[in-house]
Amino acid sequence: MYKKLKNLLLVLITILFAQQLLAQDLHGTVIDKAEGTPLNGVSIKIAGMNKGSISNEKGEFIFTNLAIGNIHLIVSHTGYEMVDTTIQFTGKNNGPLVISLIAAKEELEEVIIVSSSRTNSRIEDLPTKVEVLGAEEVKEENGIKPGNIASLLGDIAGIQIQQTNAATGNADMRIQGLQGKYTQILRDGMPLFGGYAGSFSILQIPPLDLQQIELVKGASSTLYGGGAIAGMLNLISKKPKLGKPEKSITLNFSSLKETNFNSFFSGRNENTGYTLYAGTTQQNEVDVDKDGFSDVPSVKSVFVHPRFFLYGKNNSTLTLGYTLNYEDRNGGDMAVLKGNSSPLHQFFIQNKTFRNTVDGVWEKKYSDGGMLTAKANYSLMNRDINTNVFGMKGKQGSWYSELAYTKKYSVHNIVMGINFNGENFTKQLPDSSLLPNDVFTTVGGFMQDDWKLNDVFTLQSGWRLDNNKYGNFLLPRMSFMYKLNNKVTMRLGGGAGYKTPSLFNAEMDERDYHYLQGFLPGIQSEKSIGYNYDINYKTRVNEWELTLNQTIFYNEINHPIVYSSIKNGNLIQYTNQNNSISSKGAESYVQAMKAPYEIYLGYVYTDAKRNYNTYNPYLPLIAKHKFASVFAYEWSEDFKMGIESSYTGTQYLENGTKTEPYLFMAVMLRYTVGKAILVLNCENLLDKRQNKNGSLVIPPLTNPSFPEIWAPIDGRVINLSMHLKW
Fold this sequence. Notes:
Blueprint: H1 2-22, E1 24-32, E2 43-46, E3 51-54, E4 60-66, E5 69-76, E6 83-89, E7 97-101, H2 106-112, E8 113-114, E9 121-122, E10 131-133, H3 135-144, H4 150-154, E11 159-163, E12 171-175, E13 183-187, E14 190-191, E15 210-217, H5 221-224, E16 231-237, E17 246-254, E18 258-268, E19 272-283, E20 298-311, E21 316-332, H6 334-337, E22 348-365, E23 370-387, E24 391-408, E25 412-428, E26 438-452, E27 457-468, E28 471-483, E29 488-499, E30 516-519, E31 526-541, E32 544-558, E33 561-566, E34 571-576, E35 580-594, E36 597-610, E37 625-634, E38 639-648, E39 662-673, E40 676-683, E41 717-725
Parallel strand pairs: 1-7, 13-16, 30-34
Antiparallel strand pairs: 1-4, 2-3, 2-5, 5-6, 8-9, 10-15, 11-12, 13-14, 15-16, 17-18, 17-41, 18-19, 19-20, 20-21, 21-22, 22-23, 23-24, 24-25, 25-26, 26-27, 27-28, 28-29, 29-31, 31-32, 32-35, 33-34, 35-36, 36-37, 37-38, 38-39, 39-40, 40-41
């Protein structure tokens, strides 16, 4: 009996001793290696275990009940390089652990850290696929097309920049085969343009003012509202860096009589900071095919964007911004544009836009890893349309406000918030249009959770509830990410969206506004559902960094709104169609990088249909097949060459006929001399033009019409730019 009690006592002592070994705590502190200051909100995870911690305002963190042995730690924080290390944990003898983080290089921070998720997460941690054009791409575009970002966006697989007007050069951005009105364009997380802005949005944003561009293709309405059916584009402004003031200017000249002058300045100390962008564009009218009508409009624009930053001692930041944008865009009969109008020379279309925007963002970070954000903007735009047969003036105010809270837990990343936004369009005299005034507001709430089930599975689920005069809209969304291993990642997601009726259509000729009478009674919002799947493979082969990606997408928009003629064609009104618009397809690309080479090959298949049109069900001006390639070679840090090419397959026109396929090529040379970067660039090297086979002008010449634009009409363009940064 005594022996049994002795053995039982030994077992109990052993168990208690083992529990003592398991019940050890790991204390640590995370600091900035360069400055030695503690870092708040750092994520510390133990690989292979469902354990995580967030550092407090003193940089401290703790793990409890850890077993003695090797512990694999993964430490990550916005703006810092990730630490992946294994430590030998011996319990109380270890003492506090100190982890030093190194600030990420500018390019690394700007490419990897994504703000469009509202959680400032890394791309590889997001269940939703986000594509980022980082500092290098934006910097390169500033030397190629410093006036706007249209060309840069057109280089992304799945995006088609479509010119909609031969006279004014208006352009529409189409994602996954859907028209531009189904894409939400944001500036620093807030809507940038209202409906009255027409198709000028991407033509009025200069790249020098941007830090990076973030793109989500497919249903994105849960976080950013119903309009993000085809996708969401978020333009991230530059921010000042502590101890790194920036002064830079860009001067550009092109063979199509375009001159750009852009400047950017920034500075920051411990308490305050600022950025200032100011730029101007002067584009003279050009008749490329010599038919007497402009193929490139006259454009005069000024863009000014100052921002001020106040940094509080309690981990809070206040950002205040103002944007001024003025543009005078004029196209038509060359004689009229040069001031020589006559009974035989009368046609012109002129758009004058003047937009003022004020915005503010307040952020407060808490020691437990939470962050509260309040943001708002208000934009007032005046647009003056003049033509030889019709003129109208209008004023549109648009506003957006939001209060959101995010919190990072060990396995959950939650964001929730409410927002209030709206638009108010008012006609002004003189005005000969039939358009009604229009106002609507939307109030909404949203919530989303990224739940990391384990090291390989992450589930993102969310919803939005909006209310406006067109009804209530519940928008669920779900995405799932599976990391098969450190090379293969798969994502599958889908969600709902909606689009409220808008008086203005980017594809409509300004002269047609004279006959536009608004909406048919009983018009409803368009409702959508969309799905995306992608698989990404990334590895290294003989020092080459190789990436392969395959994406499959499907979108469907029910009861789409189109404009149609009524009363024998004398008037135009918007109405819902009984069937749907659908777009489905696939995007494939392979990218290989090894200094000094960079190679990209991509292919996009798009099948976009308007199922309500039995005569011609294909959506016009959507290429079913598109190939793209990029080859870049960097001889040295000072000299780089790049060659881009794209093949656009046949497109359907409104009458059901097909266009010709065409090949587009561009060549760029970049050379650095001291603090100056010189860029010589040639777009449309083969001079492919739709107007080579005849004029695009359909008589009568005093008030002509134009065919659909399916290929470039401006021809070969050469530009030389200089960017100076000090």
